[in-house]
Amino acid sequence: MTGSPGPAPLFGLYLFLAGLWAGALAFFAGGAGIVLRAAPTRADGGAVNRALLDALDAGSLAIAVLLLALAAVLNRSRPWSPTSRALSLRLLALAAVAAFVSLYLITPELVALRARAGPLFEALPVSDPLRRAWGRLHGLSLLTLLVRLVSAAAVFALGFRQVGPLPVRSVEGPS
């Protein structure tokens, strides 16, 4: 696609938010293990990661909604390719659902299971039903994070594809 993808400041904001979102998700995914290893206890590390994940989930919802609105405005000023538009909108909706599920369904259940197990959660055997249920939910939490990370990166890439080649200017030299 050639030419301008829409109003330059709005398009820049779209790409900035998509890139920032993907970067924040990747940073959390890479740093969560470091937090757990560096914390005095796994419970302390888990508390820090939970606070970060809650903020990331809420931020993911907000950014997905904002990017959906920006995509609609940008598409009106200069239509995107049908494939890019359709994929971007679907990926943003999927990411918003994943963030909602993580924030309002999975994380509260993880916290409730951990509270039910008490302070000796780490001492529970792997075969304990509470520990197994927590492990399944943790796996689903990781899946929602991965879905958002891939979606954010793809939304950025699809938006970037709309930039197209820069116009060529002729420069007249001295004769």
How do the helices and strands line up, and which of them pair or pack?
Elements: H1 8-38, H2 42-77, H3 82-117, H4 129-161
Helix pairs in contact: 1-2, 1-4, 2-3, 3-4
User: Fraction of residues in helices?
Assistant: over 70%
Largest sheet: none
Domain count: the total is 1
Separate helix tally:
4
**Derived structural class:** mainly alpha
- The gross shape turns out to be elongated
How would you describe this protein?
- There is one protein chain.
- With 175 residues, the protein is an all-alpha fold.
- It has one domain.
- Helix content is 78%, strand content 0%.
- It has four helices and no strands.
- Helix 1 (8-38) packs antiparallel against helix 2 (42-77), helix 1 runs antiparallel to helix 4 (129-161) and helix 3 (82-117) packs antiparallel against helix 4 (129-161).
- It is elongated and about 80 Å long.
- The protein starts with 7 loop residues before the first helix and ends in a 14-residue tail after the last helix.
- The model has no long low-confidence stretch (mean pLDDT 89).
Give a summary of the structure in a few sentences.
The chain has 175 residues and is an all-alpha fold.
List keywords for this structure.
single chain, 175 residues, mainly alpha, elongated
